[in-house]
Amino acid sequence: MKSKILMLTLFLAATSASWTTFAGEGHSHGDEGPAAANTNGPARQPDGSVFLPKPAQRQIAVRTIVAETGELPRTLALAGRVAMDPNSGGKVQALVAGRLEAGPGGLPVSGQTVAKGTVLAYVVPSVDPIERSNQVAQLAELKATRSLAEKRLARLKDLADTVPRKEIEAAESELASLTARAKAVSGGLGNRDALVAPVSGAIASSNAVAGQVVDARELIFEIVDPRRMRVEALAYDTDMTSDIAGASIAVGESRVPLEFIGAARRLREQALPLSFAATGEALERLAVGQPLEVYVQTRSTIAGIRVPAASVLKNPANQTIVWVKTAAERFEPRTVTVAPLDGVTVAVTSGLATGERVATGAATLINQIR
User: Fold this and answer.
1) Does domain 76-85+225-300 have CATH number 2.40.30.170?
2) In the predicted model, is pLDDT for residue 346 greater than 70?
3) pLDDT at 31 exceeding the cut of 80
4) What pTM value is reported for the model?
5) For residues 97 and 29, which has the higher predicted lDDT (pLDDT)?
6) At what angle do helices 165-190 and 129-158 cross, to 10 degrees?
7) Region (Disordered): which ranges (predicted)?
8) Of 197, 207, 208, 232, which Cα lies nearest the Cα of 88?
């Protein structure tokens, strides 16, 4: 009995020893803490900064600029819209009511380029049946009278030696008058009103369908020059019109300068419309009536640092920030206040010091690192 107890005791001791040494190297025993975090990749640090290794910076194309303080124009962002330039655009309207027919090249569609003088479509006038019958009867009468006048003129010419010259001239004049009247009535019966492009440009809108019945003065086509536009902005402060030094709009990542034409002398929706002229290839991405922001620069200035608008982001607390490169692989967020400039760049008025390197390219990706 004692020998059995001794053998059982030895077996349990051996088994417990094997349990403590069963797990191999690198395996969890259940009483260890979590594995250490990987510090070789991009990571957000406890103080809010971002650790971004050089290989990762090259992969996401990080770019920085050196902050420089200067005097920048005070800018106001106004609500505006794209309008047609009346000198380079035009409207095509029907002069008479009738049925629409395709032109020599077919009916143009929106976006198609046309040249000045191109026949876009025809309008076959609609005539009352009774009026048309009267015109047909009048034409038949004129043709019969003209036939008699031709015969009378031929007889007078045969008797030219005995008939006064004035009678022959009167007969010729009567025949010419009857011919012109018959031609006018005939043209009125089969005439078509040609819709001609008043300017060269692109079709901005088309309301034409073959066989469509249109009314007089109805808009059929609208033509614009996509490289020449007008921009209208609404100013609620009428005093600013005398302090405008320049203006611009942002089209994608491009800045399009505007030429200030003048201010209206009548309020619209309690605001004063301002007119600007714009030219350039970037305008081809805009459409007539498209809303946009117009950045109007005044003659007064503010002290600030010019940075790209893409560098200005929001943190989880909805604060405006920029990312500053403080070390080779370290970026820190800086809370800043900004003012608009031209739609492509903004002015940082506080929170940033001269000489600091601000992240421009891939700033959005840096802001997403967690």
Assistant:
1) yes
2) yes
3) no
4) 0.69
5) 97
6) 160
7) 24-51
8) 197
Q: Which of 50-64, 65-79, 105-119, 122-136 has the lowest mean pLDDT?
A: 122-136
How far is it, in rounded angstroms, from Cα 274 to Cα 263?
Answer: 4
Amino acid letter for position 150: E
The pLDDT value recorded for residue 113 is 93
CA distance 228 to 202: 11
Q: Is CATH 2.40.420.20 the classification given to domain 50-73+302-367?
A: yes
Is residue 3 predicted with pLDDT exceeding 50? no
Residues 6+ apart with CB under 8 A from 220: 92, 93, 94, 100, 120, 121, 195, 206, 207, 208, 214
Domain boundaries, the chain: 50-73+302-367, 76-85+225-300, 92-224
Residue-wise pLDDT for 9-22, tens only, equals 434 344 344 434 33
Report pLDDT digits (tens) over 279-302.
Answer: 988 898 999 999 999 999 999 999
Degrees, nearest 5: CA angle 357-358-362: 125
How would DSSP label each residue in 85-152?
-TTT-EEEE-SS-EEEEE-TT----TT-EE-TT-EEEEEEE---HHHHHHHHHHHHHHHHHHHHHHHH
51's enclosing H/E stretch is: strand 50-51
Amino acid occupying residue 68: E
At the topology level of CATH, where does 92-224 sit? OB fold (Dihydrolipoamide Acetyltransferase, E2P) (2.40.50)
